[in-house]
Structure formats: structure tokens, C-alpha cells
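Subject: design request, 518 residues
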């Protein structure tokens, strides 16, 4: 064994009785307390301050969680699962954390006070989450692009966000514009058809095309090209490297290399021009000065793009990037658009109505870098919510869907300790409406009891406190967000409740593990 210390475990708190369940559950509660007051349209904001005293105000759960300097390992687990929830569906992170804290609190009570074995509690939670998800799916309603529910989904998602109403209008317009063109492999994928960019001191807008945060290679290039013929270039545009010239001390060889550089540069530019292309989107690592000057002399519009932008620009223009000179003789290397132009004041380049798949760009502004970042995140949340709703359907919002699943869940004929897990999941499902109402200034428990005794989809109007049909009022949520949040909460709670001791290991790096196995 290369590392004799690896595999030697010791209690984190030696000679002291250390209650892992208590410590871990407290870590989860601490994280949940940080974000639970942001839940719902009337949730409160957090002021985030870093070591350099930079400030940022946000009520976005994942933004707050990722900003926390979490030290406790279980707290870090919560942050990681919330980040995964954000990546999968773009919403529901706060919901997942609130439900997880409720499951862990109830699960800990069963273990500590009633003596139920953690394994049984975990099995019950797993079954309860599975059954609750099935019941939510049965209650879901499918929607289409034309349905008013699509607008309501977006408005519900952005209700509590900065400038939520204005951003909702932008998101709705963009989704209706791309419409059925956003269907890939049988489902909507707006990530491929809607791009959200942020820029301070620029008006909010939806642009039917691609907006690049780029300027022309040279100010002497045309500022606008009408009916451009566009090529994506990933060629090596540095035929003779500067380092080769510097390493050579002989004048004749340097002169030969310079002549070679000039001839190769001319050949590259001539072959590009021969295709008819007059607009180049260049993703090459370097561009020779001679090539740049030749492009300017031939009135070619050229801008730099990143390698990450190649995929969606290829899709937008319906072309393949040119990687080698031989590719210039192939098909589908030149695409068209209505216009390509640069707005010099904004530092943005616009490509309008490309010849490939339709793409819409949402430009989100802000008076400061922080506000533009917050509004940018919110717009993306709105797009993700719409995508989830169109693909998997919708359920009543405001915690009503979760609340009315509880009785159905308890009516299932479950055996033995499986019913215990149902009670844990039921407590978590009820916590969402209770927290939303508490954040709105009501007695959450009292109002939840009133809604619980009512019919399907009935919730509480957070403005008046009256019982209302949430679907009729337009308060709805994507089913996918609910299910993934519930599954994430179950995963967190199962992991925490199964831990009976926190131990410190000498080294848990993959390399150390590999060495130990030898």
C-alpha cells in the first residue's frame, strides 16, 4: 500500500459523543433557513457581499446557495444538488431545499423519538416520493404553444423576479416567435433556439436572429452587409508562425519564410473569396496580419467568434464550419441572411434571418452589472419553465398541487413502515404552500388547513388570503419542476438520514483510492 495512512478513519470529535444525525440535520436546516424566505411571489431578497465588498441583491435560490461559503460537508451536498436541479430544469431549487429540510426534520423525529430504524425511514421516503410523483403526473394537464396557460407559466415563474412583468413579455414573445421550430427529437428544446444575452445600458429587446457580443476585426471593414454570404472559419489562419521567424537568424531563410507567408496568406484568402463568401465568422486561434489586411482590402466583413458559438451558428445558418482548405470545395459551407451589421455604440453584431434553423435572441439590460445579471438569470428561468411545461405538462401552483396529493398518498394501501415514509413525504409536500403563505404575511398553518379541506387545485390567494382555484387564477407550475424538486429532496434526505457517524479520512482523492487498491 503506497499510502499507509489512507483508510485510517477517526471520529471528527474524538473523546466526545458526536451526534452525526443532529449535526447533519442542523446543517441542512441552516441552508434551508437561508433560502426559504425567498419562496413565492412575495419572497424576500438577500444581499450577497463578497470579500471585496462587491454587493448583489437576489432572491434566486440557486444564486444564493452557490454564493454561500458552505463548510459543513452536508451543507455542500445541498448546494451541489440544488445546482444539479438548476442545470436539469432551471427552477425549483428553493422548493427542493425546503422539502428536503422538512423530510429530514420529520425523519429525524421518527428515528430519535420513536426509535424507527433509519433504513426503514429511508425505504419509506423512497416509496413515498415515487408514489407522490405518479400522483402528480396523473393530475397534470398538457398544454400547447397557443394556450393561455403558457403565458401564465412564464408569469408565475417570473412573478417574484426583478422586472418580472417586463421580462415575461420578452420571454413570451421569443417563445411564440420560434414556436414549432424549437422541436428537436420530438420535444421542445429552447436552449437551441433562444439565446439570452445581457448588456448594460442597452434597451431590452427580442431580436429575430443571432446577437454576438463582438466587433469587426478592423474598423475599415464594412459596418453592414446586406444579403451576406456567410462562412464559419476554423482554418489555421497563421500559415507561418512568428516563433519560426524569431528562431531563425539567417536573412535568406527569413526572407524565404516571409515570402512563403505572403503567398500562403494570399492563397487562403483567394480560395475563401472564390466561394462567394463576403462575411466570415472566424473561430481560428490566430489570424495573420497579412490575412486580416487582405480581408479589409477585399471588403470582407469579419468578426471573431468563440469555439462554443460554432454549434448554434452552424445550426442558424445551415452550414458546416470550414476546418481545412479542402473543405472549401465541399457543400454547405456558405449560408445566407438578410443582414449582418455592427452597432458601434453597443458593441454588438446582429445577424438577421439566417438560412438555417430559426434562432431568437433576447437582449436583457440593466443599469448595473449586478442588475443585468439578475435579470438575465430570470429570463433564462422563464424560458426553462416554458420548456418544461410544454414537454411534460402543468399542475396547480402555489403549493396546491403538492397539498392535494397528500390525501391521495395517505389513501394508498401501503404496508407496515412504508406508511411512515409517506408521513415524511406528506409533511414535505405541505411545507411548500405553508412557506409561500408565511412569506406573504399570513398564518401559513391556518391557511393550509383551510385549503387542504377544499377541492382539487384550491389554494390561497396571497393578496387576499381567500380560497381560490389556482388554475383559474393562472397560478400554475410545470410538472417537471415539481417532480425533479421532489426527487432531489428525497435524495438529499435519504443520504443524510442514513449517515450515523461523521468521520475524517486522511485522503479521499481518486489517486489515493487507486493506490490503495493496488
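Subject: RE: design request

Done. Sequence follows.
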Amino acid at each position: 500500500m503506497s499510502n499507509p495512512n489512507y483508510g485510517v478513519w477517526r471520529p471528527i470529535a474524538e473523546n466526545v459523543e458526536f451526534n452525526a444525525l443532529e449535526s447533519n440535520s442542523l446543517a441542512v436546516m441552516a441552508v434551508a433557513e437561508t433560502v426559504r424566505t425567498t419562496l413565492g411571489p412575495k419572497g424576500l431578497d438577500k444581499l450577497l457581499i463578497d470579500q471585496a465588498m462587491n454587493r448583489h441583491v437576489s432572491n434566486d435560490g440557486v444564486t444564493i446557495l452557490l454564493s454561500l461559503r458552505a463548510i459543513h460537508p452536508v451543507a455542500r451536498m445541498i448546494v451541489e444538488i440544488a445546482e444539479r436541479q438548476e442545470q436539469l430544469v432551471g427552477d425549483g431549487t428553493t422548493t427542493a431545499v425546503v422539502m428536503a429540510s422538512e423530510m429530514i426534520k420529520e425523519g429525524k423525529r421518527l428515528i430519535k423519538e420513536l426509535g424507527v430504524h433509519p433504513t426503514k425511514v429511508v425505504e419509506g421516503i423512497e416509496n413515498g416520493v415515487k408514489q407522490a410523483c405518479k400522483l402528480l403526473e396523473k393530475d397534470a394537464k398538457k398544454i400547447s404553444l397557443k394556450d393561455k396557460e403558457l403565458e401564465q407559466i412564464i408569469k408565475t415563474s417570473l412573478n417574484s423576479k426583478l422586472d418580472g412583468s417586463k421580462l415575461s413579455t420578452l420571454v413570451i414573445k421569443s417563445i411564440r416567435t420560434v414556436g414549432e421550430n424549437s422541436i428537436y427529437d420530438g420535444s421542445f428544446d429552447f436552449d437551441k433556439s433562444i439565446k439570452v444575452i445581457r448588456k448594460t445600458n442597452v434597451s431590452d429587446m427580442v431580436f429575430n436572429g443571432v446577437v454576438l457580443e463582438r466587433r469587426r476585426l478592423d474598423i475599415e471593414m464594412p459596418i453592414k452587409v446586406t444579403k451576406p454570404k456567410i462562412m464559419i472559419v476554423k482554418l489555421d489562419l497563421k500559415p507561418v508562425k512568428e516563433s519560426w521567424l524569431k528562431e531563425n537568424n539567417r536573412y535568406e531563410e527569413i526572407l524565404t519564410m516571409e515570402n512563403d507567408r505572403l503567398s500562403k496568406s494570399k492563397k487562403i484568402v483567394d480560395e475563401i473569396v472564390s466561394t462567394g463568401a463576403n462575411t466570415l465568422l472566424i473561430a481560428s486561434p490566430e489570424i495573420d496580419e497579412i490575412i486580416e489586411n487582405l480581408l479589409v482590402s477585399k471588403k470582407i466583413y469579419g468578426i471573431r467568434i468563440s469555439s462554443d458559438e460554432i454549434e448554434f451558428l452552424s445550426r442558424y445558418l445551415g452550414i458546416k464550419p470550414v476546418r481545412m482548405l479542402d473543405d472549401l470545395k465541399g457543400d454547405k459551407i456558405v449560408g445566407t441572411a438578410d443582414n449582418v451589421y455592427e452597432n458601434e455604440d453597443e458593441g454588438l453584431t446582429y445577424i438577421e434571418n439566417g438560412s438555417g434553423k430559426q434562432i431568437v435572441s433576447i437582449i436583457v439590460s440593466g443599469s448595473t452589472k449586478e442588475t443585468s445579471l439578475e435579470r438575465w438569470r430570470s429570463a433564462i428561468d422563464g424560458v426553462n419553465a416554458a420548456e418544461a411545461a410544454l414537454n411534460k405538462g402543468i399542475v396547480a401552483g402555489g403549493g396546491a398541487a403538492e397539498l392535494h396529493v397528500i390525501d391521495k398518498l395517505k389513501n394508498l394501501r401501503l404496508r407496515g413502515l412504508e406508511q411512515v415514509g409517506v408521513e415524511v413525504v406528506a409533511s414535505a409536500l405541505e411545507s411548500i404552500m405553508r412557506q409561500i403563505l408565511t412569506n406573504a404575511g399570513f398564518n401559513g398553518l391556518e391557511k393550509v388547513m383551510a385549503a387542504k379541506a377544499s377541492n382539487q387545485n384550491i389554494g390561497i390567494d396571497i393578496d387576499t388570503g381567500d380560497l381560490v382555484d389556482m388554475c383559474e387564477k393562472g397560478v400554475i407550475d410545470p410538472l417537471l419542476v415539481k417532480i425533479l424538486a421532489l426527487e432531489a429532496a428525497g435524495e438529499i434526505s435519504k443520504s443524510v438520514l442514513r449517515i450515523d457517524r461523521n468521520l475524517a479520512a486522511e485522503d479521499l482523492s481518486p489517486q489515493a483510492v487507486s493506490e490503495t487498491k493496488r
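The radius of gyration is 29 Å.
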